[in-house]
Amino acid sequence: MITLALPKGRIFEETLPLIRAASIEVLEDPNTSRKLILPTSRPDVQVVLVRATDVPTYVAQGGADLGVVGLDTLIEHSAESGGMDLYQPVDLKIAKCRLSVAVRADFDYAGVVKQGSRLRVATKYTHAAREFFAAKGVHVDLIKLYGSMELAPLTGLADAIVDLVSTGNTLKANQLVEVEHIMDISSRLVVNPASLKIKRVALQPILQAIRDAVA
Ligand code: PRP
């Protein structure tokens, strides 16, 4: 059996056409089903639904053979695990967005950076944020949050946030402005290194079909 770990939402929806290229059709809709293990049109392939942040753990520790995860989540996982526990063969070029720094429209970000003052930064992406500000030589106090980062500058919890931006609508709706573009983000296919050896015959054609579908 080949097990594919997917998070619900945008990554799930955008992965479907890519795995269809390997003749894998998910047979149940995660939005209506309460099942966490979904059968596919191939009896030798199943999909497990996990939280986006849990995809790297499932795949690295063999709970799944492969998975799809955003580069944002992958960076945080790799910083904690050492980054050697996952094989990353394909940039799927889906769920594209960017990791950015945003502040309240009335906050003088450039001034604070220029003066060398400390910046209080709220984020779910502490490793990426630490690395970015360290490279810029900006001193930061990082505040770890798990969601609704946009609230932090509005309530005085932080001066800035590091968060994903796609359309920019969430920032705009909360009177925040983007002041730094840290990196472009897309989703990656990740594979358990042991599975790649043990299940090579079954996995290689799936990886190749996905590669071809991306190209
Ligand atoms: C992301 C991100 C922003 C929003 C940006 O959240 O954290 O809140 O999308 O998108 P926009 O620029 O198109 O408005 P997501 O919906 O992925 O949920 P999350 O907060 O659980 O990460």
Please provide a brief summary of the model.
The chain has helices spanning 10-20, 55-60, 71-81, 109-115, 126-136, 151-155, 169-173, 193-198, 200-214, and strands spanning 2-6, 37-39, 45-49, 66-70, 87-91, 97-104, 119-123, 140-144, 160-165, 176-185, 187-191.
In percent, how helical is the residue content?
25-40%
In the CATH hierarchy, the third-tier topology of the largest domain is known as D-Maltodextrin-Binding Protein, domain 2
Q: Compute the number of structural domains.
A: 2
Approximate strand percentage: 25-35%
Small molecules bound: 1-O-pyrophosphono-5-O-phosphono-alpha-D-ribofuranose
Query: Per CATH, which architecture of the largest domain?
Result: 3-Layer(aba) Sandwich
Largest sheet: 6 strands, mixed
Separation, N- and C-terminal Cα atoms: 27 Å
> What's the average pLDDT?
97
Please state the oligomeric state of the protein chains shown: single chain
Order of helices and strands: EHEEHEHEEHEHEHEHEEHH
Shape designation? elongated
> Class by helix and strand content?
alpha/beta
- Based on CA atoms alone, the radius of gyration comes out at 19 Å
Strands ordered across the widest β-sheet = 2-3-1-4-11-5
CATH class term of the largest domain = Alpha Beta
Low confidence ranges: none
Q: CATH-wise, what's the superfamily of the largest domain?
A: Periplasmic binding protein-like II
Number of helices: 9
Number of strands: 11
